[in-house]
Amino acid sequence: MWQPQPIDTSGIELPQSVRDERETLSRQAHDIWAAKRLADGWRYGETRDDARKTHPNLVAYEELDDDDKSYDRELIDGTIRLLIKLGFRIERDRD
């Protein structure tokens, strides 16, 4: 049986610039997910129904409850921590 084995990134600190943009990045992750669902024929529904392709989270990010927002935040945090662990640097271009 398959067992997930994510790379341990627990010791990686997110740069302040990333923490400052966390909600923007999380909103983007949600919008990408929602756009894909909508393109695949899904629509908003009070409950998730895979057969009818309805999902209660097909709303603007701001309308999600904190539990649902936390999924996107954790995805972003985990992805950036992994990039840092793999040796990438996150820098903001200040024009």
TrEMBL record:
It holds the Pfam family RyR. InterPro entries: Ryanodine_IP3_receptor, Ryanodine_rcpt. Residues 2-92 form the Ryanodine receptor Ryr domain. This is RyR domain-containing protein.
